Amino acid sequence: MTAAGPAVRLTGATRRFGDRTAVDAVDLTIHQGERVALLGPSGAGKSTLLALLNASLRPTSGTVEVLGADLATLTGPALRVVQRRVGTIGQRLDLVDQVRVLHNVNAGRLGRWSTGRSLLALALPRPDPVVVSALEAVGLGWAVHERTERLSGGERQRVAIARLLVQDPELVLADEPVSSLDPSRASEVLGLLRAATPDGTLVVSLHQPELARRHCTRAIGLQQGRVVLDRPADELDDALLAELYALT
Ligand SMILES: Nc1ncnc2c1ncn2[C@@H]1O[C@H](COP(=O)(O)OP(=O)(O)OP(=O)(O)O)[C@@H](O)[C@H]1O
Ligand SMILES: [Mg+2]
Asked: Does the CB atom of residue 47 touch ligand 1 within 6 A?
């Protein structure tokens, strides 16, 4: 079901850790096809918000609806059906170092495959064309058979993006995917993330306003768990950012 409704709808979404409120009563709707830059100072709640959107964290209160499903009401297989439609690239990338690159990329669709087929894929010496073309798309066609641990940081990041391409998600969540890259590499990676969901929705946390302006349609600023800025990305200017990042 590709719901005609919003990709994401948060209603009073709150996440606490002990007496710390990381996400504080957030009401937010993100429509399908929007590309959202999440901005805000360290500790503002960006990673926590992204974790609520892929159900790796549950809200303490409020609701989190993603692709038409209320995540709090789902468990087990029903939750995995939604999670399969959501591609996440976290700061840690979550690659298995000891296996060949093709197996990490193939993991993008294991959710859709039976256990038998997945095991067969691990055993087969020859990668299938979907995996190869995803690796080619990120400029790593040569690395199909490399052991993942041999790759550089930037190359590993591309492997994680190739895994997303294979997953073909409707919603991509990326937590600071370009924080360690030089500006031209960073822009390229954002382009690849957009390609991972050409008609879908992208939510990406970033600290570079120029990248938000170039690659995103909407900018959302968080401060202390609250949405304090929400406007078209091309309206971001230095004054708004200075205010958003000002130490309070
Ligand atoms: N697992 C956790 N346990 C306790 N506190 C947490 C946990 N995760 C986040 N927090 C707290 O919640 C607040 C928001 O953290 P979060 O990681 O979401 O911020 P962020 O905007 O992603 O920051 P950064 O830009 O540094 O990555 C912080 O005060 C943080 O210390
Ligand atoms: Mg973070």
From this structure: yes
Beta-bridge partner residues of 203: 36, 173
Contact 15, 57 (CB under 8 A): yes
Structural domains in the chain? 1-85+169-248 (3.40.50.300), 94-168 (no CATH)
Output the 3-class SS for 71-92.
HHHCCHHHHHHHHHCEEEECCC
Three-state SS at 69:
strand
The helix/strand/coil state of 33 is coil
**Residue located nearest, by CA, to atom 24 of ligand 1:** 42
Alpha-carbon 213 to chain mean position: 18
Nearest to 167 by CA among 120, 107, 115, 116: 107
Tell whether ligand 1 has an atom less than 6 A from the beta carbon of residue 42: yes
CB 135 within 8 A of CB 141: yes
Length of the chain measured in residues: 248
**How confident is the chain (248 residues) per 10-residue block, as mean pLDDT?**
77 97 98 96 96 95 96 89 91 88 88 65 75 93 95 91 93 90 86 89 94 96 97 92 81
